[in-house]
């Protein structure tokens, strides 16, 4: 169903694994206002003194650094089950429907403080798989028409970073894992794409272009055509602190952009980075803004940033997915309990008898953030859920949707309904 753009990406990713790899804004993020760099540790260059009155220090530990765990590839039985589930899903929609897939926060890299043997880079290299973070999810990504994830890191070798608690980056060659995994596009308007300043942000865009992956951020929409339907995706950062400072300007801009992009024969998608981390309910402004954007012409709204699942609404027939949760998240070596359950969503679009496109349905695929045997460990490779585990995700979504004014009362869910 998709065009194959994988040859260059595969070759580059294989080479990386063999060799060991190595716009103006309206405001300033509160947690980073100094613009200073976070230096890497270096050996001292100060001259040694002839005598010292300091007490002797404990010798540095000579304990060996553990090797990173090499997680095995999915078993054939697991792959077969995934394929069977996808085949069952495909029976539920028509050949004229364009199927999109959205996944949440993907940090394809690490942060300086993460222990070397536990960080994303080490686990990725040890796996020997160019598509390691998506070794389970890629079967869904490759079975649809277009897949989009939220990329929460820079692809750069820059060393000057913002002064903030979390700074995420991955080697530019990591962009080469996206296309072979079935990912066509990424959203960049979030609080980590610029962790390494404008240099890192430009490096990220260059890496994505090199490996044939499209991207969107504020002012740069993503446009594509599937089965005769034109899609435009708009991407914004509207976290709570930004809304509190300049919310009126932001929502006015979003609605103006939507009205400008909306036509009778296209679909306007809006990807929002918003809300509060680890809150399981959207803030009042999110619900207000979502309705105003739909009234302006948006056809589908999907959110990220809270790191866990939030409810789903259907306002005027248009879905609002407030938070997808984490997905392949290299931002923490621990699997935080609140973030373990996640999902991908697959909205479908078709044309009515008059030729006007609309959203004809949506499927939820429950996942766990990590496939490590220890539930407290994040191995950066999400795994699909079935049976009672899938039911838990569906029940969580419905429970968190019920207080919303237009919360969904049921939703098609893999592992439960088919």
Comma- or semicolon-separated keywords:
418 residues; alpha/beta; nine-stranded mixed sheet
> What is the string of helix and strand elements?
HHEHHEEEEHEEEHEHEEEEEEEHE
Number of strands: 17
* Helix content bin: 10-25%
| Largest sheet: number of strands, sense, barrel closure | 9 strands, mixed
- Rounded average pLDDT: 89
Distance between the termini: 22 Å
pLDDT < 50 runs, ≥5 residues: 3-27, 31-58
What general form does the structure show? Answer: globular
Overview of the structural elements:
This protein is α/β, with parallel strands linked by helices and 418 residues long. It has helices spanning 7-19, 76-90, 120-127, 138-141, 197-210, 240-261, 284-296, 387-401, and strands spanning 98-107, 146-151, 154-155, 169-170, 185-187, 214-216, 222-226, 229-239, 266-275, 300-304, 312-315, 318-321, 326-329, 341-351, 357-368, 383-384, 412-413. The strands form three sheets. Strands 1, 2, 5, 6, 13, 14, 15, 16 and 17 form a nine-stranded mixed beta sheet that branches. A six-stranded mixed beta sheet has the order 7-8-9-10-12-11. It has a two-stranded parallel ribbon with strand order 3-4. β9, α7 and β10 (300-304) form a beta-alpha-beta unit. The two termini are 22 Å apart. Residues 3-27 and 31-58 have low confidence and may be disordered.
């Amino acid at each position: 169903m998709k065009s194959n753009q994988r040859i260059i990406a595969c070759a580059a990713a294989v080479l990386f694994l063999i060799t060991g790899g190595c716009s103006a804004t309206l405001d300033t993020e509160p947690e980073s206002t100094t613009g200073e760099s976070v230096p890497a540790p270096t050996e001292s260059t100060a001259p040694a003194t002839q005598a010292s009155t300091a007490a002797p220090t404990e010798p540095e530990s000579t304990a060996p650094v553990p090797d990173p765990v090499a997680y095995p590839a999915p078993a054939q039985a697991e792959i077969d089950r995934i394929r069977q589930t996808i085949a069952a899903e495909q029976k539920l929609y028509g050949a004229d429907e364009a199927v999109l897939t959205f996944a949440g926060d993907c940090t394809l890299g690490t942060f300086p403080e993460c222990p070397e043997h536990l960080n994303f880079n080490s686990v990725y290299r040890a796996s020997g798989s160019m598509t390691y973070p998506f070794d389970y999810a890629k079967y869904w990504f490759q079975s649809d028409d277009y897949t989009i994830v939220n990329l929460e890191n820079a692809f750069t070798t820059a060393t000057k970073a913002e002064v903030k608690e979390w700074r995420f980056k991955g080697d530019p060659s990591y962009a080469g894992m996206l296309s072979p995994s079935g990912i066509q596009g990424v959203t960049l308007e979030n609080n980590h794409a610029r962790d390494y300043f404008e240099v890192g942000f430009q490096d990220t865009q260059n890496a994505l272009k090199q490996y044939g992956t499209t991207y969107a951020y504020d002012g740069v929409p993503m446009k594509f055509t599937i089965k005769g339907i034109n899609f435009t995706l708009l991407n914004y950062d509207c976290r709570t602190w930004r809304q509190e400072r300049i919310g009126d300007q932001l929502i006015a801009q979003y609605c103006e952009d939507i009205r400008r992009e909306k036509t009778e024969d296209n679909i306007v998608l809006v990807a929002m980075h918003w809300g509060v981390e680890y809150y399981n309910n959207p803030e009042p402004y999110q619900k207000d803004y979502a309705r105003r954007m739909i009234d302006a012409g948006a056809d589908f709204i999907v959110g990220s940033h809270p790191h866990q699942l939030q409810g789903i609404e259907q306002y005027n027939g248009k879905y609002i997915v407030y938070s997808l949760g984490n997905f392949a998240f290299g931002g923490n070596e621990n699997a935080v309990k609140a973030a373990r359950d996640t999902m991908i969503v697959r909205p479908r679009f078709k044309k009515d008898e008059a030729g006007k496109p609309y959203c004809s349905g949506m499927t939820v695929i429950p996942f766990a953030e990590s496939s490590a045997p220890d539930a407290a460990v994040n191995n950066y490779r999400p795994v699909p859920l079935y049976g009672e585990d899938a039911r838990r995700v569906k029940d969580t979504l419905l429970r968190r949707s019920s207080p919303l004014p237009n919360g969904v009362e049921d939703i098609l869910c893999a592992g439960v309904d088919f």
